[in-house]
Design brief:
Length: about 425
């Protein structure tokens, strides 16, 4: 691997850091209070379940949008025809069995001054501390001449569920020799390598069912995560099928004609049979409206406790937060949920949280048996900003290594099975 610290060593460091100072039972024996968790994704589920396990004296209410959660990780496999949507849907029954009060009644407003959450039903919940893990919303106003309705024609599929199936069905119905455009936004956005894994798995499907089709990536930036590894995989597996068009070569989106399925940029026009339009993003609206983003689009947090820098007793995790050097990924959100839960349990016991390590590993599939990854280890620094730990992290080894690629694909599947079992399994 091209990293000074191997993944196995990094996992060992992270496990020791989280397992040693944070799991001491006497520290949490005096913890009590009510914690409301907004959002039942990787971050919210992780935080809620961890709190119940380490501090049973704390009551936890988890507010979710639906009875089941559909994961964004592995949704690209559904789009590529490799998994069914039912394979990436999970209930909250296991969390309920551990004492989490799961309510399918999403939060519509947060009042940090009153320490209250307003629910869609009209109910109001008071809290001692709140964990906000609502994910992202789209900035449709940042796209030229379109509104949210355009997603019914040009799906974003950046929130898993119906949009995932719409994009899958459009690709499968595409005429022979057709074109797919993927239009990712500029940073920051949820899952930076996601559009390029999507391009890979769409190309895998097309190589089997529509081999003269093309995939164009009309990007909002000039570089992307794991770029060299992706491009090497595309050249090896899908030569001539995937084209990457950086921002510098098209100058940005000028006009979008959904009916004609055409994107006009300042330098060129692109037409396609299917357009996957991924809008610019921000923290979810509940965070914006509660003032948790300050004057920006994302929530700044204290890297030690994940407490908002804009509101006391409110902690923000996952995609809605700017978490120093940590990327926006499912692995990151789940790790942050655990650390945030331990920090809250410590604070509600009247103690000061200790510094620990956090890890992220982001796997991507270029094909079912071809995986790549990037990993990092992070620690809260003296300014309580999460910074990369020097000498750690890195990407998969470059070059022709078929067994390594097969192993990484197996690691990706193993990670997904493990994390979904941990968060949502019995």
């Amino acid at each position: 691997m091209t990293r000074d610290l191997t993944r196995r060593q990094a996992i060992g460091i992270t496990g020791a850091a989280l397992g040693s100072p944070f799991l001491a039972a006497p520290l949490y024996a005096q913890s009590s209070g009510h914690v409301v968790v907004i959002g039942g994704g990787f971050g919210g589920a992780s935080a809620a379940r961890t709190l119940r396990r380490v501090a049973p004296g704390i009551s936890v209410t988890l507010l979710v949008d639906a009875a089941e959660f559909t994961t964004c990780p592995f949704s690209n496999l559904v789009i590529g025809g490799l998994r069914d949507i039912s394979d990436i849907r999970f209930s909250y029954d296991a969390l309920r069995s551990e004492g989490v009060d799961v309510r399918v009644d999403p939060a519509t407003a947060l009042d940090p001054a009153a320490r209250e959450v307003v629910l869609q039903s009209g109910d109001r919940l008071s809290y001692d501390r709140a964990i906000v893990s609502p994910g992202i919303d789209f900035r449709w106003d940042a796209l030229p001449g379109v509104s949210a309705d355009v997603a019914e024609t040009l799906p974003h599929a950046w929130k898993a569920g119906a949009q995932t199936l719409l994009l899958r069905d459009q690709i499968q119905a595409m005429p022979e020799g057709g074109t797919v455009i993927i239009a990712p936004p500029d940073n920051p956005f949820r899952c930076p390598p996601g559009p390029y894994e999507r391009a890979s798995l769409i190309a895998h499907y097309l190589s089997q069912h529509n081999p003269t089709a093309k995939v164009l990536i009309v990007d909002g930036k000039d570089k992307f995560s794991k770029q060299g590894l992706f491009m090497a995989g595309w050249q090896a597996l899908y030569p001539g099928m995937i084209s990457f068009i950086p921002f510098a070569e098209h100058g940005g989106l000028k006009e979008i004609d959904a009916g004609a399925k055409r994107i006009d940029t300042y330098f060129e026009s692109f037409s396609a049979d299917v357009i996957n339009l991924i809008p610019p993003q921000s923290a979810a609206s509940i965070a914006l409206e509660a003032g948790l983003t300050g004057t920006g689009m994302w929530c700044e947090i204290d890297g030690l406790t994940f407490e908002s820098r804009e509101a006391e007793n409110v902690h923000v995790i996952g995609d809605a937060a700017i978490v120093g050097d940590m990327p926006k990924s499912g692995f990151s959100a789940a790790t942050q949920g655990k650390v945030c839960a331990h920090a809250i349990a410590t604070l509600l016991a009247g103690n000061a949280p200790e510094r620990g390590y956090l890890m992220n590993t982001c796997y991507s599939l270029v094909a079912p048996d071809y995986g790549i990854s990037v990993a990092g280890v992070y620690q809260s620094d003296d300014d309580n900003r999460l910074s990369s730990l020097p000498g750690t992290g890195g990407t998969s080894e470059a070059g022709d290594h078929p067994q390594l690629r097969r192993d990484e694909a197996d690691y990706a599947r193993g990670w997904y099975a493990s994390i979904t079992q941990e968060l949502f399994g019995a």
